[in-house]
Write a structure and sequence with these properties.
By secondary structure, the protein is of the alpha+beta class. It has twelve helices and 18 strands. The chain is globular and about 75 Å long. The structure holds flavin mononucleotide.
Length: about 375
């Protein structure tokens, strides 16, 4: 069973992660993980903190000569800002920001200082999730499963959807300051962010994650918590700020007739000897039917609310005075949809890798490869 735990506060010494259940024999490079961490820190609309941190993950255990040995992988990302915080004394913060865990968390845990909530509720945690997901992505790459993420909308500015996926597309996405290949939309999105900043406001948006090369049969309908669409939705919802998740054409489908929604199945008269014969002409289901992957691309969209920390703060209360006041503004991002798309990519990597290992389980990469190969051979006969 693949599982992870993470720990760490936003201005604590470091973020920690433990991954258990990884097979032996997988090549894992810190450089790969760090490339994704850098992408998470990027994207137009980020705040000052990103100039302080240059996230780098260290793999502390479970790796010998660059290869996993089957034992738990221990990861650490240092918080550079921790040192700065040691030099200053911060008075207790008693005003919760609407839209954050501040209000409920302070009451729930009986704190006098809202900081004790926001330190852990902060999206700083997503740095470790990216590191952990990157390890899962390295496993999937061994089986030619690739994950793409890009921004579809920021505020009101929409980009066109990507329809064909290859390594060049990844380069194109990363070249854009908002991780979006639609040049005109990219410019519009940056302007929208600038306008929001000038007005002391923030923005949300939508990103899409597409996974190619996913075999038929990951996830299951036999128990509610094994449905892969449910697991992906849960993973995406756990990204701070994500308020809705859509698989395939989920939202549009709810307005249409069945005949216009479901993806018909075709069989050619002649099929190539070594390949699976059945195919679809459409993928409105987003690659998952009945909680199980159907061999098509898995397509997920996540909808983010705007950042809750505003330069022009919203009304709130002060727990100390019990009176109404305005929330405080502390250095913050204006828009994090591009960064969140990277987190989504790695959250998807984790869920797909978990389901993949459930299907083709083994203690070593070699064993898993054999299981996957035998399954592929079986598919050719169906
Ligand atoms: C990568 C990333 C960076 C974020 N940075 C900030 C930030 O600087 N300021 C802020 O107020 N919210 C930020 N957020 C959003 C908050 O974490 C989020 O709105 C908050 O946790 C409450 O969201 P929830 O209600 O979905 O849990 C960020 C989110 C992500 C994914």
């Amino acid at each position: 069973m693949l599982r992870f735990l993470d720990a760490g506060e936003s201005h604590g010494k470091c973020l920690l992660g433990i991954i258990e259940g990884f097979p032996a024999g997988l090549s894992l490079s810190e450089e790969n993980i760090n490339r994704n961490l850098k992408r998470r820190q990027g994207g137009y609309g980020r705040g000052e903190r990103m100039k302080i941190e240059q996230d780098r993950a260290e793999v502390l255990s479970g790796l010998v000569e660059g290869k996993t040995i089957g034992s738990p992988l221990g990861l650490m990302i240092k918080n550079k800002d921790w040192e700065n915080w040691q030099e200053k004394e911060y008075p207790p913060l008693t005003i919760p920001r609407p839209g954050h865990a501040d209000f409920s968390g302070t009451i729930k845990y009986g704190f006098k200082d809202v900081r004790k909530v926001l330190e852990r509720a902060s999206a700083r945690q997503t740095a470790m999730r990216v590191a952990i997901g990157s390890a899962a992505g390295a496993l999937l790459a061994e089986f030619n499963i690739e994950i793409y993420s890009y921004v579809l909308r920021i505020g009101q500015v929409k980009a066109r959807r990507i329809t064909s996926f290859d390594s060049k597309i990844k380069t194109e996405i990363n070249k854009s300051p908002v991780y979006c290949i639609d040049g005109i939309a990219s410019v519009g999105m940056c302007r929208e962010i600038d306008r929001a900043r000038e007005k002391g406001d923030t923005l949300g948006g939508v990103f899409e994650v597409v996974i190619t090369g996913v075999p038929i049969g990951l996830g299951s309908y036999v128990q509610w918590d094994r449905r892969l669409d449910a697991r992906l939705a849960s993973a995406f919802m756990s990204i701070p700020g994500v308020k809705a998740v859509e698989i395939g054409e989920g939202i549009e489908a709810s307005e249409k007739k069945g005949s216009a929604v479901h993806d018909e199945i075709f069989a050619p008269e002649e099929s190539e000897k070594d390949s699976f014969r059945y195919y679809r002409k459409t993928n409105r289901a987003g690659g998952i039917e009945g909680g199980v992957t159907n061999g098509e691309k898995v397509v997920i969209r996540a909808y983010l609310k705007p950042i809750p920390t505003l330069i022009n703060p919203l009304r709130s209360i002060d727990f100390a005075t019990k009176k109404e006041t305005r929330a405080i503004y502390q250095r913050s991002d204006i828009c994090v949809v591009p960064a969140a798309s990277v987190v989504g990519e790695e959250a998807a990597a984790w869920e797909i890798a978990t389901a993949f290992l459930e299907k083709f389980s083994g203690d070593s990469l070699l064993e898993i490869k054999e299981n996957s190969k035998n399954y592929k051979k079986r598919l050719q006969k169906i």
